[in-house]
Design goal:
The protein is an all-alpha fold. It is built from four helices and no strands.
């Protein structure tokens, strides 16, 4: 059941984002700002985790997986995935309407 929710969410949430940004222009700015903040948080968590592994000279493949226990890493990564799909859908629709006019 959870797998189905994840798949459906990855389809419908970006579509909902497209609809929201068409209806309410300020939502587009919010989506962009949230993506910037998510990329900063996601990147900083990743880089500090890798730095600690290199600094401590630990086994890379075993310790790097602990990053998946960080809820901020998971939330920001999930949002970035949805945001990329949102941007791709926007680009598709913009290209579609430009070519069909």
């Amino acid at each position: 059941m959870m797998k189905i929710l994840l798949i459906l969410g990855s389809i419908f949430i970006p579509l909902l984002m497209v609809v929201l940004q068409r209806k309410w222009l300020k939502s587009q700015k919010f989506f962009h700002l949230a993506a910037i903040l998510s990329a900063l948080i996601f990147g900083n968590i990743s880089s500090t985790a890798i730095y600690n592994i290199i600094k401590d000279d630990t086994v890379f493949m075993t310790n790097i997986h602990s990053i998946f226990l960080n809820p901020f890493f998971l939330i920001t990564g999930a949002y970035l995935g949805l945001y990329v799909l949102y941007i791709l859908i926007l680009q598709f629709f913009n290209q579609w309407f430009r070519d069909n006019i």
